[in-house]
Amino acid sequence: MVFRSPLELYPSHFFLPNFPADRPLLLQANGAPPPARPSPEDLSMFQLPTLNFSPEQVASVCETLEETGDIERLGRFLWSLPVAPGACEAINKHESILRARAVVAFHTGNFRDLYHILENHKFTKDSHGKLQAMWLEAHYQEAEKLRGRPLGPVDKYRVRKKFPLPRTIWDGEQKTHCFKERTRSLLREWYLQDPYPNPSKKRELAQATGLTPTQVGNWFKNRRQRDRAAAAKNRLVPLSLYPSLSLSLSQSRFNALECIEHLFMLYRSVCLFVLL
């Protein structure tokens, strides 16, 4: 189904009368009295029809255009939107419509409107990921424009510290290495039980954590590599890190040398005795 803007469906020239714009001036030039002001009843004959879109219908159109990525048509639709009388308040509170306005503001570079929408409306968790990405990317672009160069990882970290996510698009849970702490804790528990989960277990864990099976598999792979590296490092620890152990081994070597030297002297004595 193709959605079209209401103004595309009902062009204004279908409803407005085709009167010459200079007709009153011509009448006055001929000596005729100026025309009387038309009555409200006469004007009502030429008014545009009111399209009574409900908030749900508007939200459905916004969601479809947002999913297809047609930001230009989405912006035109929001700008030219006629709504039913009394529906403005509901429109201004509907999450899908607010998210659509935020998307249009982001893609048009109107970051001030984007920040205003995100900071002043509470969004559900389903919208957090996309809105968080727009919040951060908008601040990154502003910082790049101000500094005149691309941002590095450290620069982006400083931007995130300076402009933290508003609580309207964030549940408040801290993230570590891109995964939430609750997710990491669950992954660690499963890893202790089985470091090599099969595909079915990966899917089960992905469903429990909200990750994809690929992300789960990569986490387990990286964790196994870190554990192997740590084990190899422990096997190659130099004795200088353990002075007491190094001293005891040196003392043992010294005692062994003393014993060998003593046995050698005893052997020489026996040999001399035999020769005599």
**What percent of the residues sit in helical stretches (DSSP H or I)?**
55-70%
Number of continuous helical runs: 14
- What is the approximate shape? elongated
Q: What's the order of the H and E elements?
A: HHHHHHHHHHEEHHHH
Give the beta-strand count: 2
Measured by DSSP, the beta-strand proportion falls in under 5%
GO molecular function, one term: RNA polymerase II cis-regulatory region sequence-specific DNA binding
Domain Homeobox: 170-230
InterPro entries: HD, Homeodomain-like_sf, SIX1_SD
Main location: nucleus
Q: How does this structure look, described?
A:
The chain is built from 14 helices and two strands. The chain has about 280 residues and is mostly helical. It has helices at about 5-10, 25-30, 40-45, 55-70, 70-80, 90-95, 95-105, 110-120, 125-145, 155-160, 180-195, 200-210, 215-235, 245-275; strands at about 175, 180. About 65% of the residues lie in helices and about 0% in strands. Helix 5 crosses helix 7 and helix 7 packs parallel to helix 9.
